[in-house]
């Protein structure tokens, strides 16, 4: 039976549409995910793209860096658990709540609403 709980998550790197790991968001074996809209963090964060794989992550230094562009998706509990494992939460990355300004038309969401950052803040 599918989960009835939906979580709004902000993705800003390889999980976005057109990026190399987006396929995990569309694989229904992992759960369900629905694109809601494009957004930008309301506060600045240092975005680092590192490693030989060009992996993006945010440093846990709110107020430094720049506002980050990304996407908001609604996901079920199964997809949330899958993404936590896929992203290495909480050992490699730390999922957190952040405020997003929506940049595209969407349904039922207000700019500045808090959503979970699934591609996570790194504690460097």
UniProtKB/TrEMBL annotation:
Location of the Gamma-glutamylcyclotransferase AIG2-like domain: 9-102
One Pfam entry name: GGACT
What are the catalytic residues? Answer: 87 (proton acceptor)
Any one cellular-component term (Gene Ontology): cytosol
Tell me, what is one Gene Ontology molecular-function annotation carried by this entry? gamma-glutamylaminecyclotransferase activity
Entry-linked InterPro entries: AIG2-like_dom (IPR009288), GGACT (IPR039126), GGCT-like (IPR013024), GGCT-like_sf (IPR036568)
Source domain of life is: Eukaryota
Similarity comment: family membership: Belongs to the gamma-glutamylcyclotransferase family.
Q: Which PANTHER family match?
A: GAMMA-GLUTAMYLAMINECYCLOTRANSFERASE, TROPONIN C-AKIN-1 PROTEIN
Question: Could you tell me what this protein is called?
Answer: Gamma-glutamylcyclotransferase family protein
Which species is this UniProt entry from?
Lingula anatina (Brachiopod)
Whichever gene encodes this chain, its name is: LOC106162528
